[in-house]
Amino acid sequence: MGEFDLIARYFSNIGVKRTDVSIGVGDDGAVLQVRDGYDIVVTTDTMVAGTHFFPDVDPRALGHKLVAVNVSDLAAMGAEPTWLSLAMTLPSADESWLAQFAAGLHETAEYYNCQLIGGDTTRGPLSFSMMAKGQVPRGKAITRAGAKVGDYIYVTGTLGDAALGLKWVQGQCEISKKHQGHVLQRFHYPSPRVALGQALRNTASSAMDISDGLAGDLPHILRRSGVGAYVDIQRLPMSQALKDSCTAEEAMHLALSGGEDYELLFTVPENRRGSLDVLLSPYGVPITCIGRITGAVGKLELKTGEQPYAYQHQGFQHFL
Predict the structure, then answer these.
(1) pLDDT above 70: residue 300
(2) Function, please (predicted)?
(3) Strand segments (E) across the chain
(4) Distance separating alpha carbons of residues 49 and 125, to the nearest angstrom
(5) 253 within a domain of the structure (yes/no)
(6) Residue 318, domain member (yes or no)
(7) Could you tell me if 247 and 149 are in contact, meaning their C-beta atoms sit under 8 angstroms apart?
(8) Label partner for 238 (CA 20 to 30 A): which of 9, 24, 259, 279?
């Protein structure tokens, strides 16, 4: 099967058929209609076999995750996901594998109301690069640069579950049968907080998604905003699965630095805190206040109550 047959068979109808796509897959470029009064948000993520996923991963799960991690970046900026582009490098055209991968792409793109509008296909070591585009009302994008001294720091959901799932898949820990489904779901099928991100447009002063671990990601907000922060690690939200499967110290390590949670990390000024519970209650996602922004520029202090907590690991980084 040639490149163009592959595209036509598996990737010409991924996601929903959006009315704002004039020309999608099959031409030299896509033609899109942008709503008046909106800005475009663009993000790109690359996944490489052996670095971001196991070569023998379930292709359906891989298709889901590729869309989800990109859409999560849009969610963090309060954007509505709209269009996806995909560049694939494949060692061979395995039709059974491609059918499952495309199914994972399609069902996830459809769920988030996205359409695949183009990309590229080449032969080589297995890797994928996806560019996701979204729209946000003009001037309403939430960035990492808006946190102010005194703001409260929040996270959605629970932390550390995806990292626990990875450890179990690698045979590095034991998990009771009642928790296995939960941790595998969090590892293979992350759920970006898209609706909640849009709800935060007029409330959050800064935001990002947690992909490389809280201890590694929060400093990005601190640097961009020119502030510091303290986090009370006793407040970190952890699932029962994480608590039951690890020592307290290991659970804390995974919650701080495990990565791939794709939860939202955001800050809220004191005068907007009162509206949070009412604003976010329709979305069914718990939020937890874990600390506050300080004036100690670039400094992240971890505490247990009022006592300092010594911790060195800062989350995943390439090239280190």
Answers:
(1) yes
(2) Catalyzes the ATP-dependent phosphorylation of thiamine-monophosphate (TMP) to form thiamine-pyrophosphate (TPP), the active form of vitamin B1.
(3) 21-23, 31-32, 38-48, 80-90, 115-123, 127-137, 152-156, 206-209, 228-232, 264-268, 287-294, 300-304, 307-308
(4) 8
(5) yes
(6) no
(7) no
(8) 279
pLDDT of residue 255: 96
pTM over 0.85: yes
Segment 184-218, tens digit of pLDDT:
999 999 999 999 999 999 999 999 999 999 999 99
120 is an annotated ligand-binding site residue: yes
Task: Let me know if residue 163 belongs to a domain.
Answer: yes
Residues 165 and 276 in one domain: yes
* 44 labeled part of a ligand binding site: yes
Q: What is the pLDDT of residues 208-265, one digit of tens each?
A: 999 999 999 999 999 999 999 999 999 999 999 999 999 999 999 999 998 899 999 9
- Does the annotation place 288 within a ligand binding site? no
Q: What would the mean pLDDT of 107-131 be, rounded to a whole number?
A: 96
- 212 secondary structure, DSSP code: S
260 is in an annotated binding site: yes
Q: Is 52 annotated as a binding residue?
A: yes
> 3-class DSSP state for residue 80?
strand
Q: Is 139 annotated as a binding residue?
A: no
Mean pLDDT over 96-120 rounds to 96
Burial of 50 (C-beta count, 10 Å sphere; 0-12/13-18/19+): exposed
Token pair recorded at residue 150:
């005194």
d(CA 93, CA 72): 29
- Structure tokens, 36: 């008046």
| 173: its two tokens | 């820990």
